[in-house]
Amino acid sequence: MAELRIQGLAKSYRDVRVLESIDLTIASGEFFTLLGPSGCGKTTLLRTIAGFQHQDRGEIVVKGERIDLKPAHKRDIGMVFQDYAVFPHLTVAENVAFGLKARSLPKSEIETRVAESLKMVRLDGYQSRLPAEMSGGQQQRIGLARAMAIRPTLLLMDEPLSNLDAKLRIELREDIRDIQRRLGITTIYVTHDQEEALAVSDRICVMDKGRVEQIGTPFEIYRHPVRRFAAGFVGTMNFISGTLKAGQLLIGSRSVHFPGADGTGPVELAIRPENVILSGSSPGAAIPLRGEVRKVTFLGREAHYTLGTEAGEIIAQAMDPSADFIAMEGQTIDIVLPIAKAALFDANGDLVSAGRP
Ligand SMILES: Nc1ncnc2c1ncn2[C@@H]1O[C@H](COP(=O)(O)OP(=O)(O)OP(=O)(O)O)[C@@H](O)[C@H]1O
Questions:
Q1: 270-300: per-residue pLDDT in tens?
Q2: Strand positions, DSSP E, the chain
Q3: Which of 154, 224, 246, 273 has its CA 20 to 30 A from that of 325?
Q4: Are strands 65-66 and 77-80 parallel, antiparallel or unpaired?
Q5: Where is the ABC transporter domain (predicted)?
């Protein structure tokens, strides 16, 4: 059974529509991420699920029961906030015990759960400290332990890693994922960081302007985007303007048959830098182009080349620059865009066709 089902959820602030009719279903134990740019409505959606604000229309159903009719404190939800929101005057243990006391659990049960939760987030031994004596990463661990201690049906996390430096972000995101897996707790995670979303999620919901653009596994979103927005927001993507004429794709002076694209009109060809062939040829249909190397970015394990072509600027990636391919700035090289690794989007941002090998 679906753990959480959201149907037709809409919300406006005064006259501004922030959530258009949102529909989504989340399975029990799933790590589900809302990913999108600032202002797309992720936080509003999360806070509406938590009950901190109310929708104008639509339903939120958990385990078959409408929770949107209940006040926030009766929704059985644990929440972790971007700014930690720990109580500064309470010790670590008191912070974690807070929700348990509010639920009037017996003292011994509270002690057991506090100890368990602190161990889980690796804060064993810090019971008597005050939050001010802890680092940002540790304070967020308190927030996580506090949310988990009540053993909620749903765990909601709103950009929990945004205030931490890059190294800590990766460390804590791994911990969050491990704990979530171990406990099998259904989690909704909000982030604007696409790499973070790819790393932790079972499924990602890409949002833009209050709408769901695509829902899928990280692999599906990265490899098979169905909307131009998702294609451009997750990972790096080249978009090359072209024209479709009854199945023939025209890019600059080149023309190639694009399978499954029978229409006519302006299109954009989307291809990832790692799929641009820098040396050699493509086994199937492809668009060959001449490219002037404008910039080389050497990153050790890989190198990125910015190429000026008749179809516009294209970024290409070589995975093993020392062994595979080396180009110098100013050089002109032949590149190939394999159709099997490309997708076509129309002027509305809808997928026209994705290349098939
Ligand atoms: N209380 C409010 N009153 C009026 N407008 C609001 C309110 N809260 C949010 N908004 C607006 O609603 C839109 C969506 O905001 P929301 O915080 O949900 O987006 P978000 O995707 O979470 O963005 P961010 O990553 O910046 O937090 C924004 O345009 C924001 O300015």
A1: 999 999 998 777 778 899 999 999 999 988 8
A2: 2-13, 16-27, 31-35, 57-62, 65-66, 77-80, 154-158, 186-191, 203-208, 211-216, 238-245, 248-251, 254-257, 264-271, 286-298, 303-309, 312-318, 332-338, 343-346, 351-354
A3: 224
A4: unpaired
A5: 4-234
Instruction: Starting at the earlier edge strand, list the strands of the sheet with 264-271.
Output: 254-257, 248-251, 238-245, 264-271, 343-346, 351-354
Q: How far is the CA of 123 from the centre of ligand 1 (A)?
A: 33
ipTM confidence: 0.93
Residue type, 305: Y
Q: Which of 13, 16, 24 is closest to 215 using CA atoms?
A: 24
Q: How would CATH label the architecture of 237-354?
A: Beta Barrel (2.40)
Q: Which two tokens stand for residue 332?
A: 């002109």
Class of residue 184 by CB neighbours under 10 A (exposed 0-12, middle 13-18, buried 19+) = exposed
Q: Do 2-229 and 237-354 come out as alike in CATH topology?
A: no
CATH code given to domain 2-229: 3.40.50.300
Residues having CB closer than 6 A to ligand 1 are 13, 18, 36, 38-44, 192
Q: Which of 11, 12, 43 to mutate to test the pocket of ligand 1 (most atoms within 8 A of CB)?
A: 43
* Cα pseudo-dihedral 328, 329, 331, 336, rounded to 10: 80
Structural domain boundaries of the chain? 2-229, 237-354
Q: What is the DSSP letter of 180?
A: H
pLDDT tens for each residue of 141-184: 999 999 999 999 999 999 999 989 999 999 999 999 999 999 99
